[in-house]
Automatic annotation (TrEMBL):
A Pfam family that the UniProt record links to this protein: SusD_RagB
Major location (coarse): membrane
UniProt keyword list: Cell outer membrane, Membrane, Signal
Compartments where found: Cell outer membrane
Residue stretches making up the RagB/SusD domain: 348-480
Protein's name in the database: RagB/SusD family nutrient uptake outer membrane protein
InterPro entries assigned: SusD-like_N, SusD_RagB_dom, TPR-like_helical_dom_sf
Family stated for the protein in its record: Belongs to the SusD family.
Species the sequence originates in: Flavihumibacter fluminis
Length: 480
């Protein structure tokens, strides 16, 4: 007898954290530990919170943004293993392998796993006894971290799977989960509008900010600075321009931009300090135990085979003589290679075990610049843009851009250069409703892969078909 195995929120939730729904016979499972038995002390909570962090897979964000946008060109020849071909050529469909679990987990299934695991701990945490004031403070911090992780996972989902390019409060958004599913086998939720999703995200971030102490500065976890950074990102996404600068400044003032002399070490140092001594606000540690989550391996194999190279369009945007980012991010001889997370050549070997930078001050400076430009504060926007460039380009002298549209274009191009291969480019073009355009040479000479128009259904990503099979209430995005 054939059996059909389907991935869905319901199935995913049923397995999350070893949760089990009792069936005909009221027996406990012998191969799983129910959450309420596994988490009984504050130390147990910390272990569970670490598990939520470990579930969150940011590599997928980098993969999707890089291959679907204009950041790279595909590898060629016998060493190329067809990596990213479907996304790069915009041939993805709802049941494409690009949306299953092959590439360290699809964004859809991964983020809902994060949300469900966070919810299950949040539903228990208030009842966990704290034996000392120090434990009570830690319990409060852990709750804040979980709320922030739930908000971040929902925000990721909204960015990638909402039914419109730019934010539209009344348009179709995602499934929101403020609590765990109590009966996973019958859990068939529908998508809410984008405003409802944003309301939950903002509420979680506001509460998290009150719970995480300013003295907690571990950049490998969610700090108060990371919450402020996320609030700035959400405000930028929702075009709440007036709120962006305030949230951004909360971080910029305490974690300033890396100087031009210090910048290369952000990328050449495999494991950065666990404190807020650099501009890295939140990072994901990559080591031998989780080396499969690395970023460099998306673009190159350990033997040096090239799966993707920097696009010529991208390389052309840099001042190649004076911009520290050019020599930090790329190797151009004997061929063009992406070196931001390590590189392999005939004389250089690497295991790609570099911290993944999820939030950096650079992103917030540019978010502030964009928001100020939208508010017609062109002087302030120019100042923010100049502050970034002067810390990246030797002997930089800024000339104010006095046309608003031209200034916003310059800021977006600076994001392209500064945040490349960090999971931003596709989302930036999408939220601004801009087409994805490539040089013909970057598209392998294929004219059909040079432009993805904003009215092309392939610009909006599909809800995975497995989800549709398992949940009849799940609305699919148009065109799939």
């Amino acid at each position: 007898m054939k059996r059909l195995y389907r991935t869905s929120l319901a199935i995913l939730l049923a397995a999350s954290l070893g949760a089990c729904e009792k069936k005909v016979v009221d027996l406990d499972p012998i191969d799983q530990i129910p959450t309420d038995r596994a988490i009984r002390t504050v130390a147990n909570v910390n272990t569970a919170v670490n598990g939520v962090y470990g579930t969150y897979q940011y590599r997928r964000n980098v993969y999707v943004n890089a291959f679907i946008s204009d950041e790279l060109r595909l590898g060629t020849g016998t060493e190329y293993r067809n990596v990213g071909n479907i996304l790069f050529n915009w041939q993805h469909v709802s049941d494409s392998q690009d949306w299953r679990d092959g590439e360290t987990g699809g964004i859809w299934t991964n983020r809902y796993a994060v949300i469900d695991r966070a919810n299950r701990i949040l539903e228990l945490i208030d009842g966990i006894p704290a034996n000392t004031p120090a434990e009570e403070a830690l319990k409060s911090q852990y709750k804040g971290e979980l709320l922030a992780m739930r908000a971040i996972a929902h925000f990721d989902l909204l960015n990638y799977f909402s039914a419109t390019l730019a934010y539209d409060p009344t348009a179709l958004g995602i499934v929101v989960q403020a609590e765990s599913a109590k009966s996973p086998s019958s859990y068939q939720p529908a998508r809410v509008n984008q405003q409802e999703a944003i309301n939950l995200i903002n509420a979680d971030l506001v509460q998290a900010k009150t719970l995480i102490p300013a003295t907690f500065t571990n950049a490998s976890r969610i700090t108060r600075n990371a919450v402020s950074a996320m609030q700035a990102k959400v405000a930028l996404y929702t075009r709440n321009w007036g709120a962006v600068a305030g949230f951004a400044d909360e971080v910029i003032n305490s974690q300033p931009l890396a100087t031009i002399s210090a910048y290369p070490s952000l990328w050449s140092t495999k494991s950065l300090p666990e404190n807020q001594s650099t501009e890295v606000i939140w990072k994901y540690n990559v080591n031998a135990a989780n080396s499969g989550f690395n970023i460099g391996g998306l673009f190159q194999d350990g033997n040096g085979a090239v799966q993707a190279s920097p696009s010529q369009k991208l390389l052309n945007t840099y001042n190649q003589e004076d911009d520290v980012r050019f020599t930090t991010f790329f190797l151009t001889a004997p061929r063009n290679l992406i070196a931001k997370y390590g590189v392999v050549t005939g004389t250089i070997s690497d295991n790609f075990q570099y911290d993944i930078k999820i939030l950096r001050t650079s992103e917030l400076v540019l978010a502030k610049a964009e928001a100020l430009a939208e508010l017609n504060d062109l002087d302030g926007a120019n100042d923010a843009l100049a502050s970034l460039r002067s810390n990246r380009i030797a002997d930089y002298e800024h000339t104010d851009i006095t046309d608003k549209a031209a200034l916003i274009d310059a800021i977006l191009e600076e994001r392209y250069k500064e945040l490349v291969y960090e999971g931003h480019r596709y989302l930036d073009l999408r939220r601004r409703s801009l087409p994805i355009t490539r040089l013909l040479e970057d598209a392998g000479g294929n004219p059909q892969s040079t432009t993805l128009a904003t009215n092309n259904t392939k610009y909006i990503l599909p809800i995975p078909q497995q989800e549709k099979f398992a949940n009849p209430n799940m609305q699919q995005n148009a065109g799939y």
